[in-house]
Beta-lactamase-related domain-containing protein (Rotaria magnacalcarata), 391 residues
Amino acid sequence: MLSSVCILLCIASSVISDETTDYNIHGTITPGWNFVLDLFKDNFIHDRDLGASVAVYHQGRLAFELWGGWFDQSKTQPYDNNTLQLVFSSTKGLVAVAVAIGVQRGYLDYSALVTRYWPKYGQNGKENTTVADILSHRAGLPDTSSPLEQYLNWTAMTKELEEQTPTWPPGSAHGYHALTYGWLAGELVRRADPKKRSLGQFIQEEISNPLSLEFYIGLPIELEHRVSPIELSEKSRESLNESNIALISMFNKPSAHQAEIPAGNGITNARSLARLYSSLISDLDNGKYKPILNDNILKLVTKSNTPTNEIDQVYQVPTTFGMGFVLFDDIFPEFGSGTFGHTGAGGSIGFAVPSKNLSFAFVMNRLDTTTLYVDIRIKSMVAKIAEWIGK
């Protein structure tokens, strides 16, 4: 086993203005992966990042983890390995795993009607909605008219969704369910769970704790001080309308962190996000942890439920979904087929490459909302990693 090379000193560099800046970069890199350091540092040199972390698992072991920059705009506290980060829709992959565990244990079925578990859902044209429709964004409920403060109320949100009329006949088309996905999938888990736990409790007890992850939907209040606040990049602020800016601002509030908004308020770090994806495709830590999904379930969750070239009714471009995961074959062609995961608004991402036994995660506090999938901050890293493991 290769020993780790620890970066013990901060990496200092000069920015374009020639002012010396300490980027607070620390982490752990195993031999052969040193090339990622300069690529990660480059984001700080060019002011793309304020604070961020990145991690890769390869062959079930941590290949590298880096963190750097600042906890917030005051630049008085470093972004370090104790920092936790809101990752928006990168949370959806965790929710997909929770549903998959229910399927694996036999108390959920992707092909079953939602009404088997949630009888009141079968109203106003939703009677034939399947679990798979919800997981693959085919349920026809891509949006909600609820005020932002209602997002904190699980019962109110699920009641609204069970009474809502779908925008299109469920199963006939797909369109990204940016927030509604979480309450829909989460309510299925809650109702099917023999212990009737909330989704956040289920995730802690069945996923995060057994895998030694820090990944929360419903943050314990005592951890709030570790959460780095999100901010919009200048070009993102210029491109968004006031309602979107208000929504993003809401996600900085402790009340939003402590609620369960499963499509978007997961709080974690890059190490845990990469470890989650590695746990789906590999043993971890020299066999100490076995994959949490069996091969048959993994094949189910990563099989496309989107017809070829079908247009996403929200994004108006083709997108491809399995059971809760974005399928990245066209997004990351350098890895070949089978890559799956999920992005989050502003640039966070977690994904797995089963054929290479590799997982990747990037989280950050500065949001760039101008790209859909391959954020410029990870593009060069991903390309170099694909080249490296392809040798």
